[in-house]
Amino acid sequence: MEIITGAERRRRWRDEDKLRIVAEAEAPDAVFALVARRHEISRGQLWKWRGQVRRGELAPVPAEPEFIPVRMMASAALSMPRASSKSAAMNETAGEPAPQSRASRSDPSRIEIVLPDGTCVRVDDGVGVAALRRVMMAVRR
Fold it and tell me: I want to staple 77 with a disulfide (CB 3.0 to 4.6 A). Which of 49, 73, 103, 109 is the partner?
């Protein structure tokens, strides 16, 4: 039981708690009223949160961007052999080497990002921020 003292009569629920409780209520074989009672909220409040989740008004907060250490490497590092896939290394129809991309390996406008797990992403300086963000989110999963 929770005892509320002072002028404050309403509890403040964090979005994470609301989402967790709604997920619990949405689970198979869950009894809506029992979930509400277990968390000491009214069924109406739980129903309201459920509606907010379904309408997209209550959603998980995206993770804050985090900073990672960056190392500037000598230009010799840019001439390292590229990690190649079959489609990048060979022309699938003729079995010949694929033509060189428009930016050479030693091009100073090329950005190389090496993640701690060894994954390497190389992009030209003309790549858009939104596109790079989508690629990095896909690589991190």
Answer: 73
